[in-house]
Amino acid sequence: MSADQQAREKSMKHDAAILLALAALPCLAAAAESARPWLDKSLDPDRRAALVLKEMTQKEKLNWVSSHFGADHGGNKTKKVPEALPFSAGYVPPLPRLGLPALFLTDAGIGVATQNTTTPRERTALPSGIATAATWNRKLAYEGGRMIGFEARASGFNVMLAGGMNLMREPRNGRNFEYGGEDPLLAGVMVAEQVRGIESNHVIATIKHYALNAQETGRFELDARIDPAALRMSDLFAFQVALEMTDAGSFMCAYNRLNGPYGCEHPWLLNTVLKGDWGFKGFVMSDWGATHSTVEAANAGLDQQSGFEFDRSRYFGGALEEAVESNFVPQKRLDDMALRILRTMFAKGVVDHPVKEGGAIDYDAHGRISQADAEEGIVLLKNAGKLLPLSTSAKKIVVIGGHADKGVLAGGGSSLVYPRGGNAVPGLLPATWPGPIMYYPSSPLKAIQARVPGAQVAFDDGTDPARAARLAAGADVVLVFATQWVGEALDATSLALPDNQDALIAAVAAANPKTAVVLENSGPVMMPWVDRVAGVVEAWYPGTNGGEAIARVLFGEVNPSGRLPATFPAAESQLPRPKLDGDPAKPEERFTVDYHEGAAVGYKWFDLKGYKPLFPFGHGLSYTQFGYSDLKAQLVDGKVQVRFTVTNTGGVAGKDVPQVYVSPLSAKWESPKRLAGWDKVDLAPGASTSVTLSIDPRLFGMVRGSASTWHVAGGRYQVKLARHAQDDAARTVTIQLPAQVLDAAGHPLKTKTKG
């Protein structure tokens, strides 16, 4: 055989070997999957988690029950975890042997947050959570969540610490902007929609801060005191509604104590209520620095110690291993901790859809999603003389204050998203945690100027009220931008606007009554000048495209349709606690906060006490008018079904938010009425639509003692169709309900009858 023939034969044998190897690949893959059956996507998450848990060593189980902080902590470079994404919230190493990916955690709420502003991760910011709640638009909440969940995946994250739920018991709370307002139904539904949107990207969302983390002052040590039944009907009901709508992957327990124990070692809160009564299948992670023990926390229901570098010890590391060996923590408890995390990873698609950093992001499209959210969240509080919408034929418009020439304000702390284009107003203090004070580069002034190119649009920074007043005199309209910056770990000291802004607004309004105030703030504020201005626009922290959103509402390109998700008091003396509890200068001091109002939060407290607020819960004006008619209520399959008609009786298209409240006529509740449902309708001038709502039967009941059941008293109840919580012109009907007992989920329980 010649040398050429030998070479050809050798080549043919080599090619044949390659073909055989390629042909064997599917078999090898099938064999590998057979060897690791938990990777079979056809199995349910519970089965998959149980299968992989059986194969784990004790060390591998312990791998999942604590997370590193992704960024440097306390300046100690030795604690940096190289495998973690830079400046991220957390990291749990993978287990390649078992085909399980790492967990990469990002701070969130309004988007993919960054822990560093020197080399930041620039991403899209939604408006604040309370602004999204003010839309009362479920679809927008979902779309916003879907958008930030997409950016999380594109950034390499598969866990978002988003799903802020805490009810607004304390209007001065520095994190109110992250949450969903004061009503448990509204907050529960709106946050749930955001969570569903996030998790549609195979990203785990985190409902937080469980529970009663209602203020930042003293948050590490304060003891929140409340009757357990009242808690179940208020704050816990919000969490429960969100869980029922989402099967959320994770809950985050809070820093504070609750009736004694810390939230992250509270057996009643974690085991009895969350995992027992509500059937939660996901895992409970601690807040960063909220773990205080090994045995107590593990046995109470905490599944994962988050960012253990923040705690005094790695309680869920070697200490937990030793506690299990000595049976202070049962082996089955450690198995359950790991199982819950694994089950969530399978259920939410984290295992089957691995994340990879560097995905493409359409920032323009995402900016439009954020802008739509901001536009519908803006609330027109006052509009005397129809000052708004602004006319494009105006000759002189004066814009004052709020850095409106540069951008729009964002809240501070761990939820802060660093925007594309950077901070529009750098150098403001505090520059460090919970700062920096951030202004997103979306200038309201520039957006206004673009709409009236032929007009004189003048700007004054508002630092000199007299100078601003002189500029305002004679203008067709004056817009004063007023801001209130707060953040995580920093409550407002009062509800007054800071930095002498009240005096500025009063001076400008005295010079020109055609003045409208645009608020960029966290929540309710006092308005001593409200009777002297023609307009008040609540814009909250409006996100990436906030300047454009504000201008579109001011000029009527968007008809305002936001409604308040929180009561604006007329005075701080109307609050259950007129003075903020605790001392911000003593963060380690232990004290109690008595939530004596129980379940009567927000408008329910105002109803109970007969107080008239500055602006009621649910309030919001439009550039058109709406009429309600044909209200009916009936029992259908055990639930009260409400039907009515909404008509746009004005001259322009607009969106309305008809609200349904229920009240007992003979039974005694914690307050005179409760929000029971709503819808958001979009109508052309003269158009009508029929709305049908089904009311959760628990909203007619009361919880008694420490039980999880709801008791509905037999008798007559009033159903109100209203524009807001204190609508004197609300339409009403009555309905007769039978006495019944409902389980935690609202299902009727069979009761024994006498023979």
TrEMBL record:
Pfam families: Fn3-like, Glyco_hydro_3, Glyco_hydro_3_C. The lineage of its organism: Bacteria, Pseudomonadati, Pseudomonadota, Betaproteobacteria, Burkholderiales. One of its GO terms (molecular function) is hydrolase activity, hydrolyzing O-glycosyl compounds. The keyword Hydrolase applies. It comes from Pseudoduganella lutea. The keyword Cell inner membrane does not apply. Residues 656-725 form the Fibronectin type III-like domain. Keywords: Carbohydrate metabolism, Glycosidase, Hydrolase. This is Beta-glucosidase. InterPro entries: Cellulose_deg_GH3, Fn3-like, GH, Glyco_hydro_3_AS, Glyco_hydro_3_C, Glyco_hydro_3_C_sf, Glyco_hydro_3_N, Glyco_hydro_3_N_sf. Gene3D superfamilies: Glycoside hydrolase family 3 C-terminal domain (3.40.50.1700), Glycoside hydrolase, family 3, N-terminal domain (3.20.20.300), Immunoglobulins (2.60.40.10). GO terms for biological process: carbohydrate metabolic process. Belongs to the glycosyl hydrolase 3 family.
